[in-house]
Write a structure and sequence with these properties.
Elements: H1 14-33, E1 37-38, E2 44-46, H2 47-50, H3 56-59, E3 73-75, H4 80-89, E4 98-107, E5 119-128, H5 133-149, E6 157-163, H6 164-171, H7 180-189, H8 195-204, H9 210-217, E7 220-221, H10 226-229, H11 236-249, E8 257-260, E9 273-279, E10 288-292, H12 296-299, E11 307-313, H13 314-323, E12 336-340, H14 346-358, E13 363-365, H15 372-381, E14 386-390, H16 392-396, E15 399-404, E16 410-414
Parallel strand pairs: 1-4, 6-8, 12-13, 12-14
Antiparallel strand pairs: 2-3, 4-5, 5-11, 6-9, 7-8, 9-10, 10-11, 14-15, 15-16
Helix pairs in contact: 1-5, 5-11, 6-11, 8-9
């Protein structure tokens, strides 16, 4: 019997792992440029915490552990929840705003698809303490900076943005207040179902004028389309959301922005601006998503604190970058491979590899006592850049031969100069 990885979870061999590390490093560098510092949290959290304000859909997606005693535990499905828990624990000790990021795996029990797995890596960025539009704009501008860092431009991607207060305020004119959260959840899924099904499900929720909801969700375009939004019947909540949206848009690069009133974000903890990043062609899954969640800190037992943040998914981003040919040639193997020509020079070869490593170089050495031609084959197979040939004749002159494996260029180098 040959064992396979669990469905929806992937193995990362050296090349694939190198891509993930390159992408993680690039995203972390951009986060640090914006003043965010890195944190880490456990993979397991209490089920009570995970379900405190996540929405019904996510409750069904949590990987639960077997109950031990009185503990009910689950694997985290995002990093916002544990990072908010961490913030609450030290809330009074820290100057505001608190700007954190993490890059780590998380888990959701859902059907695997291209660009979506049950175990996945994300960059998660959280900003606690500021209710000002500058905080939301910082998150949006950081997403843009991350995308530009890895070779994507406004021709490739767009950030679709909405505001939960705006959409909820508009819906309050069409549905009972108690039903608005369910309608928002349905709107979040509207892109995945037909217009007929969307209308039917709206009616099932008691919406007497489903076409009015559809008119709202079909409002999409560049920021100038907000003039059309102002023609809707706006109550006080909707006006507040529209103002928040406009104030944030004034601080970001508008060539990346698409206003889209169908963007709702499925998680129940969002309270203000919400946004998702997509490729322009609509070929891939959402590359990033986030928004404002001003009530979550209080729900988790902290003092009321405004907060905003986002996550970038490494899996869908890697799919897109691979298909666009934007993954750079990455170094996987060692810089040097030391090849002793026979057993007589083995100790000297070991001394040389140790010297290279002591200088901070990556260096490997033959462990199989192969012939020299087989060592060349192996060095090439593992991606070594240079091979150091340790032979008796060269050693007699206190030197070795170093060959560039890609070009075949050779030079004699005194051992003292290695």
């Amino acid at each position: 019997m040959q064992y396979q990885p669990v469905k929806g979870m992937e193995d990362y061999y050296p090349k694939e792992f190198a891509i993930r590390e390159w992408l993680s490093t690039a995203l972390a560098e951009e986060a640090r440029k914006f003043g965010f510092v890195q944190v880490s949290s456990p993979a397991l959290e209490s089920l009570k915490l995970l379900t405190a304000k996540s929405g019904e859909e996510v409750k069904d997606q949590i990987f639960l552990t077997e109950r031990k005693g009185s503990e009910e535990l689950g694997l985290r499905f995002d990093l916002t929840v544990p990072m908010t828990r961490m913030f609450v624990a030290k809330q009074r000790e820290m100057q505001k705003p608190v700007k954190w990021f993490a890059i780590a795996p998380m888990w959701r029990y859902e059907a695997p698809q291209k660009g979506r797995a049950r175990e996945f890596m994300q960059l998660s960025v959280e900003l606690f303490g500021s209710s000002n539009p500058e905080a939301d704009a910082t998150c949006i501008n950081l997403i843009i900076s991350c995308m530009e860092k890895i070779g994507l431009t406004s021709k490739d991607i767009t950030l679709k943005i909405n505001n939960r207060k705006l959409i909820e305020g508009l819906l309050e004119e069409l549905a009972p207040a108690k039903d608005v959260p369910e309608v928002v959840q349905l709107i979040d899924k509207s892109a995945k179902i037909s217009e007929a099904d969307f209308k039917k499900q709206l009616q099932a929720l008691g919406i007497k004028k489903p076409e009015e909801v559809q008119k709202i969700t079909m409002t999409k375009g560049n920021p100038e389309i907000l003039a059309q939004v102002k023609k809707f019947k706006l109550n006080a909540l909707a006006k507040q959301g529209l103002e928040e949206l406009e104030n944030t848009l004034a601080l970001v690069d508008k060539k990346y922005i698409t206003i889209d009133l169908s963007i709702a974000r499925g998680l129940a903890y969002y309270t203000g601006n919400v946004f998702e990043c997509f490729d322009r062609e609509g070929k891939y899954r959402a590359l990033a998503g986030g928004g404002r969640y001003d009530e979550l800190v209080k729900i988790f037992g902290g003092e009321p604190t405004p907060a905003t943040g986002f996550a970038i998914g490494l899996t869908p981003l890697t799919v897109m970058l691979t298909e666009k040919g934007l993954i750079p040639e990455l170094k996987v193997g060692p810089e040097f491979y030391v090849a002793p020509v026979n057993d007589k020079v083995l100790q000297k070869a070991i001394d040389i590899v140790q010297k290279l490593r002591s200088q901070g170089k990556s260096a490997d050495i033959d462990l199989m006592r192969r012939k020299l031609d087989k060592q060349f084959d192996y060095a090439i197979s593992i991606g070594a850049k240079k091979i150091v040939i340790v032979g008796e004749k060269d050693l007699a002159q206190n030197q070795v031969t170093i060959r560039e494996l890609k070009t075949g260029k050779e030079e004699k180098v005194p051992i003292r100069n290695i």
